[in-house]
Every structure is written in C-alpha cells, then in structure tokens.
UniProtKB/TrEMBL annotation:
GO terms for molecular function: ATP binding; ATP-dependent protein folding chaperone. This is Hsp70 family protein-like protein. Pfam families: HSP70 (PF00012). It comes from Lasiosphaeria hispida. InterPro entries: ATPase_NBD (IPR043129), Hsp_70_fam (IPR013126). SUPFAM superfamilies: Actin-like ATPase domain. Keywords: ATP-binding, Nucleotide-binding.
C-alpha cells in the first residue's frame, strides 16, 4: 500500500531539540532547522513549576519504594529524600576541591535505586517526552509528525570521554535517537557570539566561562569569519573544575550546621522551614550579593524552634548574615574561578602574543552573579566582561544553534590531552635504556614497547578531521577467523610532556578499549611475508580512524584508505 506522504525518516524537515542537562537545573530549547530564518525557542511550561513561565526546572528525581515509578523536576516534593546531582555521578573521576564536603561515592551509589546511567536516562527521557508534547502545541500536527527529531545534549568540556559516553548511553536507554553531544562552553559561545555578531570583528578572541551548578568550564575562541556565517575556532584546550554554585549551597549548609550545632541541625533538616531557607539562600541571597561587607541579608527558618544566638546573628529563627560572612562563603569558589580564567587568558596571550583577549563572557547560573562579574572585572581591567541577559539560556539555545551550521559553527578544536597507543618498536639502546625488550618471533629483531602519540595536547584539529592511527599485526598463514579480532588500548595523557614509555603512574591512563573486527576481509588484502625461519605469515595493515566531534570521539576502520571491517570502543 502506498503511503500518503513521506514518513519521518525520509523527510527533509528536521526538528532540533536541545537539552541542557545541568547539575542543579535543566532546560530544553528547540528549532525547526528548515525554516528560512530559524529561531531558537525554549520550553517554559513544566509540570509542577511555579509561576507562568519556568525556563528551567530542578534536576531532581524521586523514586517510589519499589523503584518502578518516579517524579521529576518541579513536581518533586523538596522535603523528600530526592536524588540530586546525578549528573556529577556520571563522572566521579572529577577531582573535588578541598573546600567542598567530601562525597562518599561508593556509599552514594549503594543508596541509589538504579545505576547513575539508568537514573539519568529516566530523567532525560521524562524531560524529552514532555518537550515533545509542548513543541507539538505550536505547529500543525501533520508537520510535527513529518519532522525528523534530532536530539543534542550539552556536557561539561572537562568531562572524561568515559563520562561523555555514559551520557550517550543514558540517551539511548531513554529511547532517544539520533543524538549528538556538544561541549557546554562551545554551545554558550555559539549563542552569545551569534547574538553579538553585529559588534564582533574577525580576529577577536573571547574567554567563555560557563559557571553552572556543579562545574565551571572554560574555553577560548577566536572569530575567524562573520560572513556568510559566524565561524569560531578554539584557541587553547578547555579547562575547568568543580567550583559551581552547588558548592556554594553546600558551604551554606555547612555554615548553618556550624551555627546551630549538630543536635539542632539534625532536627532542623527534617523541617519544611529548612527547605525554605535553602531556597531563600539559593534564589535570593546569593544572587543579590555584590560584595559589600557592611550589607546585611536575612535567612528565615519558619516553623523551626532554634535557640537564639544574638552574637551569631540568630534570633527568632532568623539568621542575619553579614556581607563579610557571605564573602567568606563565596571566597574559595571565586578564587578558583578567577584562577581558571587567568590561566585561559595567559594561554591565549601565549598563542596570540600581539593580540591577547578581547573579552570575557560569563554564562550559566553562577555566571550571572554580579559579585563574580565585579571580581573578574577587577582582575582584568581593560577587558570587557560581559554577562548575556539570558545567560541561563546561552548553553541550551547554543546547543540547538549548533545544529544549524549555516548560521554559526566552530570549525576547529584544540586537543585537551595527548591520545595514542603502545606499539612494539625496534629496540634502541639509548631511547629504550632500562625498558624490557623481546625478540620478534617473525623477524628476529629486538623490540621494545613505546608510546606513539597521534594527537598532542594543544593540537589544532579541524572539525570532522580524520586522524589515522596506523597498526599492523603479524598472523600465521593458517590463521583462524578469530585471529582477525584485534584489541587495542587507546591511551590518554594530560601531562604537557607526554612520556615515550608507558608507566603505571598517573601520567598515562586508558581512554578506551578498541576492538577491531577484520573477519570479513579477504586475505588477498594482507601482505605475504617469510619469517626468519622461512615459514610464511601475513602482515595485516589497517588504520584506526578517529574523528573529534564537538564533545565525542568517533571511531572507524580503514584499509588502504577504504572503509572496511568494523570497530567498537568500550569505555568501561
């Protein structure tokens, strides 16, 4: 039977749906890619949200006792024992600064009803399905059904490739496909600079500081073209840390505990007044603070029964916070962010010795802090420090915009690490002194294991550029099919000077395990050789091809420049 019209996957019409999956808040933006002048819009109607329009919802989820049902976002009762910060559990390798309360990762995992990836999948799926319902309200039903749906998720730039892969797995578990990833500061840069393109010049360089709830990400970009579209390139590798505003909230809770004592705090935490106090600090006090030490701020604990402590500013369940006390709460996070920005500025100055930095963009929830802006401005006099009016939306709208390359795109990235493999090289008594050596059973030569770095930290890599890692294997003439299943380790190194030899220290780590399958390849593509003892064998030459997208590496396999066989990467 002939169809009445083209089905969704045959249609050229495309709906882009972007999710800013944040540590504390999450949001959705979307656009119809084929519209002549595509506009990015946000979903602002959420179940349980307060007020008429809520551009973001809390990244919260709460499961029923049997773990089968859950509530999410603004619908969650804040007084329950909710799961918060699940995004951070996708990358436990991130180093927590000393000024944040210690997180017992193993205990946290034990108390979860599901693995973090499955919980993230539940939340992402719920947000996505709700977004589909809301978007369907603004376009004709038939057109909505016709559109291909493409999903894009933003992730911290400093996340490990393993964590990025876990995010992709969460999206797949949620039934979302196709999906792509984009680095959060890249998304923010695209949107912010696209909105300011009337005042940009080719050659301008900006540091983008995305200060969110859990992480702070920084990348610097140079404007390389304005017409016919905005084109940016990364100048130096992205950096970041866990100095987000969630840490400020945690420091506030520690301060409350210190104020009232352990016994009172244990009871206080069970009250609704405590939840209201945390909300007041998060949404009012910390946003209003501008650095004045003599200013006063009041946090109420309604319906609590706290003992008065006038000297500490606690009277009638109301805590009077001085500007100086707030400054102390902010201090370590601000210091960390200023250091991160300074490091980026210094790196840009080294790369662009005659130009330096044109401006600094502060985006994200914490990035909208007036106090943070004033401190950054003081540290960098003469450099424009800009906070977009819709800083909260810069990431999610930029993520949607990234799928409209005719409007704005990042054309090159800067490698954040060295990537390479181990290979058995011909032994050199100088280079390989002290390194174990073996005799090659085929050619009889002495060999030693060395690292070969195909991507080096700071390398400028064009978007979608193919980087080939050449391999060769020796196999017996009478090989079995499974002898053409090869496993290679892809290694990474964050040290500026990547070592020649592998050690089990902290300089080199395993990025992923790559399994290549050449069982479908005929042996006439292999090279016939004779071993030192005269027996015949084959040399199998192939290239592992890596392409660096915005936030994810993709793998393929080639022989003699042609795609062949298959490859699968495992980040476990």
């Amino acid at each position: 039977m002939a169809a009445d019209g083209p089905i969704a996957w045959e249609s050229d019409e495309k709906l882009i749906i972007a999710l800013d999956f944040g540590t504390t808040f999450s949001g959705i933006a979307y656009c119809f890619a084929n519209q002549r002048d595509a506009k990015v819009a946000a979903v602002v109607d959420w179940p349980g949200a307060e007020g008429d329009a809520a551009p973001k919802i809390p990244t919260l989820i709460n499961y029923s006792a049997d773990g089968k049902d859950f509530t999410w976002g603004a619908s969650v009762d804040k007084m329950q024992d909710n799961i918060v910060g699940v995004k951070l559990l996708l990358d436990p390798s991130q180093e927590r600064p000393l000024y944040l309360p210690m997180l017992n990762y193993k205990r946290t995992l034990k108390n979860l009803p599901k693995p973090p990836v499955a919980i993230a999948a539940d939340f992402i799926g719920a947000v996505y399905n709700h977004a589909l319902v809301e978007i369907a309200k603004v376009v004709p039903k038939n057109y909505f059904a016709l559109c291909q749906k493409h999903f894009v998720l933003s992730v911290p730039a400093v996340w490990s490739d393993k964590a990025k892969n876990a995010t992709m797995e969460a999206a797949k578990m949620a039934g979302i496909f196709p999906v792509s990833l984009i680095k959060e500061p890249e998304a923010a840069a695209l949107y912010t600079m696209h909105s300011l393109d009337f005042s940009l010049n080719v050659g301008d360089a900006f540091v983008v500081c995305d200060a969110g709830g859990g992480t702070v990400d920084l990348i610097s970009y140079e404007v390389v073209a304005l017409s016919p579209r905005l084109e940016l390139k990364e100048l130096v590798p992205g950096t970041g840390g866990m100095a987000g505003s969630l840490g400020l909230n945690q420091r506030f809770e520690e301060a409350v505990k210190s104020l009232v004592g352990d016994d009172q705090y244990a009871e206080l935490r069970k009250t609704k007044g405590y939840a209201l106090a945390l909300k007041s600090f998060d949404r009012e006090v910390k946003r209003a603070f501008r650095g004045g030490e003599e200013d006063e701020y009041f946090v109420n604990f309604p319906m609590a029964s706290l003992e008065d402590d006038p000297e500490a500013g606690l009277e009638e369940n109301c805590w009077r916070l001085t500007g100086k006390e707030l400054k102390d709460l902010f201090a370590p996070l601000i210091t960390d962010i200023l250091r991160l920005i300074q490091d980026q500025v210094n790196s840009v100055k080294i790369k662009r010795q005659n130009n330096g930095v044109t401006g600094i963009f502060l985006v994200g929830g914490f990035g909208s802090s007036a106090y943070l802006k004033s401190k950054v401005g003081t540290q960098h006099p003469g450099v424009q420090v800009l906070q977009p009016t819709d800083a909260w939306a810069a990431i999610v709208k930029g993520a949607a915009l990234s799928q409209l390359p005719r409007q704005a795109t990042v054309v090159a990235t800067s490698a954040t690490k060295h990537y390479g493999t181990k290979a058995r090289s011909v032994y050199d008594s100088v280079i390989d002194a002290g390194v174990p050596k073996t005799v090659d059973p085929y050619d009889g030569r002495l060999r030693a294991s060395r690292m070969t770095w195909f991507i080096n930290m700071g390398d400028d890599i064009l978007r979608d550029q193919k980087i080939k890692f050449p391999f060769f294997r020796s196999i017996d003439e009478n090989y079995e099919p499974n002898d053409l299943l090869f496993t290679n380790m892809l290694y990474e190194c964050a040290d500026p000077n990547a070592p020649i030899h592998y050690s089990k220290g902290d300089k080199i780590g395993i990025n992923c395990k790559v399994q290549t399958d050449l069982r479908s390849i005929s042996d006439d593509r292999f090279k016939e050789r004779r071993a030192i003892d005269g027996r015949p064998y084959y040399e199998v030459h192939y290239d592992l091809v890596i392409t660096l997208k915005s936030a994810l590496m993709t793998f393929s396999l080639e022989m003699d420049g042609k795609p062949m066989g298959s490859v699968e990467a495992s980040f476990n």
